[in-house]
Design brief:
The structure is a single chain. This protein is mostly helical and 211 residues long. Helices cover 81% and strands 0% of the residues. It is rod-shaped. The N and C termini lie close together (8 Å).
Amino acid sequence: MGKVEGGMKCVKYLLFIFNFIFWLMGSLVLAVGLWLRLDPEVISLLGDEGAPDTFFIGVYILIAAGGLVMLVGFFGCCGAVRESQCLLGLFFASLLIIFGAEVAAGVFGFMSKDKIIEDIQNFYMESIKDSNNGTMMESYNKVLGCCGTKSSPCADSTEDTKTCDIAISDFFNNKLFIVGYVGIGIAGAMIIGMIFSMVLCCAIRNSREVI
């Protein structure tokens, strides 16, 4: 079986190193997803039975993406070390599918960002009206350091006190930006991985044809 030599050998080791980093990135994405899902502040705000689940849907996608990236990174490492066209082809196809799914999810998330925040704001407004849901309202006030809304501000609020609709927007915008930045980082790494894997795969095929 032919082995790659020269510059392609360098590509082989670069791809292995890249995939190891890619595997670590998958671990980081999985950790960020679990942190967002298990964050006590988020749970206290969205843990009620009637709370909107759109935010958690995005978090679940992030967790699944992290686990999948770890698995794909493992395939890429094995394919680079063993110079296996099959594993490298599987690695490329997996990256392409994940990349396409991530772009679609990113577009959907960008289009739905305001809707997610609006749903949470509406849920808070319903909590204010529901006299039996005072605990949930207190959770928002405590976690976000806010009080009242634009339409009905608290009587004892100061100039520095945010209304809860603004505080909700700021809090979840920050969380969604974290998801977005992580997604952009993964997408950039995927493009590099696809280029490396195709270059190495072609080099392996050519070396075997020569032999």
